[in-house]
Amino acid sequence: MMFKTTSLNNLEILCDGPLVSSLPQSYFRSSSQLSNSHGPGFAKVNRRDGAGGWAPVESNKYQWLEVDLGERTEITAVATQGRYGSSDWVSSFLLMFSDTGRNWKQYRQEDSIGAFTGNSNADSVVQFKLQQPVFARFLRLLPLDWNPNGRIGLRLEAYGCPYKSDVASFDGSGCLLYRFGPNTTPILTAKDTISLKFKTLQNSGTLIHTEGQHDRSLTLELHKGKLFLHLRKGTVLITSHMVVSLGSLLDDLHWHHVAIERVSGHVNFTVDKSTQFFLFLQGNVTFTCAEPVSVPVTFAGAQSFLQLPGAALHLQFRTWNRAGLLLTFDLQQQVGSLWLYLSETRVRLQIHKAGRILLDIATGFGLNDGQWHSVDLTARRGRLTITVDEEESSTAHASPSFPVVSGNNLFFGGCPDSKNNQECRNPFNVFQGCMRHIHVDNNPVDLIKVQQMLIGNYSDLQIDMCGIIDRCSPSHCEHGGRCTQSWSTFHCNCSNTGYSGATCHSSVYEQSCEVYKHKGNTTGLYYIDVDGSGPIKPQLIYCNMTDQTWMVIQHNNTELTKLKASSGMNQHLAYFNYSADAEQLGAIITQAEHCEQEVFYHCRKSRLLNTPDGSPFTWWVGRTDEPQTYWGGAVPGSQQCGCGLQGNCIDSDHYCNCDADRKEWAADSGLLIHKENLPVRWVVVGDIQRPESEAAYRVSPLRCHGDKNFWNAAFFNKETSYLHFPTFHGELSADISFLFKTTASSGVFLENLGIKDFIRVELSSPMDVVFSFDVGNGPFEVRVETGGMALNDDRWHRVRAERNVKEASLCVDAFPGATQKAPADGHIHLQLNSQLFVGGTASRMKGFLGCIRSLQLNGRTLDLEERAKITPGVSPGCPGHCSSYGNLCQNQATCVERYNGFSCDCGLSAYAGPFCQREVSAYFKPGTSVQYTFKEPYELTRNTSTQSQSSSIYSDLTLRGENVSFSFRTTQSPALLLYICSYYREYLAVLLNRNGKRQRDKKKYRSIFLFTGPILEDFNLTSDTEFNAIKSVVLGKVQESGELDPEIARLNSLGFSGCLSVVQFNSITPLKAALLYPNTSPVIVTGPLSESTCGSSSPANPYPAETTHPLSDHSGTVGTGEPIVNAIKSDSALIGGVIAVVIFVILSALAIIVRFLYRRKETFHSQEPKSIKPEADSPEYPFHSEPTSQNVLSENQKEYFI
């Protein structure tokens, strides 16, 4: 291993002088030359010596031109030119460099591009400034393409400056030691730096070890081609150890730069950057750089092979592929063919004859790790042995019954591409990787002679270099995705990361509870990724889907904590650890429209803020880490509580109730709503040291609602209007997502340009969205077609485009997405420099007409509304959400437009909840009664000015039909379920009758009448006189039973025990009114009544009738749209489900039989023509005292008669 140090000063030295033009011809070499006048020594830019440049005998990809610069040199640029006065020039080439003229390494530009663009004629000079300088003595240029009407012709120049450094060589037993003198006082510095360069063929070894005060040490270690930095501190009993790894394939005998920098408490560890280092000599170290000879060969493609004569062998290989042929040859005496190959990362040997396997052995494991591995194959005295890495544990033996002696030729890596080739056959994958140290008949193979065609044969090989690339260092897999690779590509495993895509860039979760809600989800736990593809991790958060969607973030201490005076305790400190970390909390609060946190302080002789003039005894700390001296209900900096701000404290001389310092218990509570200070992280309680002091405090969870990003929109009303933002920086990964709605047929959503690169998303036609870009490989286009469904329908549509180093993808709504693979080894950096245009374009393409909403680039939302306020032709916001989201409102609910979104009006529905999907249910006991009372007729006529008006109102109370619907569950029979009466002693009763003789068999009776779904009663009732002036609707027991029919009175005396749910009579919802609006509705509740989930579907009720609308309480995957609940997953649950199905089928059949055998006689008979339609509902009020509105049941609802 070799080290070197460099000395740099503060002056910037120009390093761009010509390096080639002054060299003698003897410093030039080439693979061949057409003639003496076409020799490599004439290959100097702007010179006409000889034939005007170098030209080889043949123009093929095996030619090269080499320059010896005489010493190690810093090379900063290269230039090429064609051969003077000819049609010969090179149009593309590879640049190689070396310290020794052997073991070449390819120079790769930014984006890992290996090929340089050359000349297009013989006269012009094309110069390339190297993005990173090369430090080498030898340069080699390999032509890839040339003028098809000419041949390879080249003149060359390189630019740079001399490079000096101190070099030390280590043989594994020596070291350099720098030790401070015994009287040296340790110097405390704010910054320490260690830097060096090294190169080696060994893949493991210790480079640096340092020790300091307080048992601190630093070790830099090379292990399997990677650098590991070990930082240790502590004592023998308590030790802290941190390990950081960087780099890969560093055992390639090329210089690598390492820097370790400590700045205050931070350590920066980088590779391939140079600074200073000073060492003192001790041990066996020489100041020369020994250069071991190693000539590797690269098998890069499907046509690569190496053919050599010989027998027993040894070789080393390195690869990323799991499989590939290492060696094959035919055995003498036509015994068969031998194949030595990689299979599932192991070395396997097989001998075949006539399609039959004669021998099969394997050894080794994990040999596709990119490290050098040795393989020895020997056959002695009837014993065949394979050894991997010279380890006994990786050795396999076999004793075949036939001699294993090779024929005339050995084939490495593959076979010649010839149909007539019978000597080499490869039924396996070709080998892609590097080989070196090939020994045949115990003699090393001179691969340079192979390159010169002096021995053996080969095709498509890169001799004297190993072209392996570690595509996982650095890894392009984001968010913790695990990188694996093959020779030509890499793959990201995104399992358990919460992200998806070729590079694990895109989050699989939504960014807020608001988004989940508008996908139709209900209350539950969801993973929230607040910044999408950004660096903040997803977090499990409780979403309370009410009219306002609340994100609830719990912490570790939401219970009431009591404090009493204790000797020696002056303060109590409480720390609140939230379920989300500080970065997640900050993003959630910033994104929300409103956040709040309720705080409580109960006190007895324990002052809170010590108002009005004292220093606060209690304070709290939020995310700004600054003490806050105000309490819930007050404003920052006021040193007040809520009562002080409202002027209603128990003592007007103080601004907090507790500051009155009374012996009686008092309390201060309220909401903290200033987002910049939330959440509460610490609470310090101070006045608890006095003997009589007692206190209790509680800090509720943090609650936030609203999503400023989700509804952030702009309306573009002119094709020439646009919004502009700073340049979009998405060099390696770029994702763009937004919603749009329009009536226009085409338009550009956004565009950002560079010098050559660009990125654009546009609506190219009503049925096509196109994502186009160029990162230096030429324009690419990804297109999604909607299959005839127009996107200019003035409804919201979602677009998501992503471009990374592997592919580009485009998704529109739920249509099939499109993907475009990136070219192998192409440019990967997107370089933009113009402003980002939204809704328009800088390239004079057609602008966008319509609305764009929730525009996010790499997880960051652009504030369209703020920019639209100051931009002509663009308006902030965009109305009209019900056209897209109105179908979320269920059960006859009405969608209501809002500036930011929409809401569902459940006034005409018996359901509740944000989407009117929650069943309103209650459990009734025998004495429970709910009575909904209508207006009396005489009240309608008292203040009537005209008879016509009176007749109109009175006629509204005359019902031509009644629609009654509800769900119930009970074990009681007979029972009175619902009773409707009028002021004219007319009534309508819904009864649950006995079923003949089955009333005596209680078990059968309960089984038959345990209804697990809604029973919909559809009544259209009239008599000889109309059903006029309805007085009330009663659920459960009728309290005013004086004028009841005897049969009804008898049933009413029993009351009703069971569950009633979603009760609706025409447009009246009496149960909902009693439970949710008891103070504003004309309802009278007698007996115990509270809202219950008894009407909802549950595990005990796995087979609801098809007309119910249960809550989504089944189990689901976290974050995929279903909230997390407990789910029963066991064999017993499955068996129970099967039994329940069988019982349900039997009972259903019995119920059908009972229906026809014991149908209840109808009290009233319909005389109303069926063609008459009920009157329309009035949406103005959630509850009505006029029963005129009719809710028509849908035709697919079943009608039951009980």
TrEMBL record:
InterPro entries xrefs: ConA-like_dom_sf, EGF, FA58C, Fibrinogen-like_C, Fibrinogen_a/b/g_C_dom, Galactose-bd-like_sf, Laminin_G, Neurexin-related_CASP
Positions with biased composition (Polar residues): 1186-1195
Locations listed in the record: Membrane
Span of domain Laminin G: 274-466, 712-878
Keyword field: Disulfide bond, EGF-like domain, Membrane, Repeat, Signal, Transmembrane, Transmembrane helix
Region Disordered: start-end pairs: 1167-1202
Similarity comment text for this entry: Belongs to the neurexin family.
Name listed for the protein in its UniProt record: Contactin associated protein like 3
Organism encoding this protein: Hucho hucho
Lineage: Eukaryota, Metazoa, Chordata, Craniata, Vertebrata
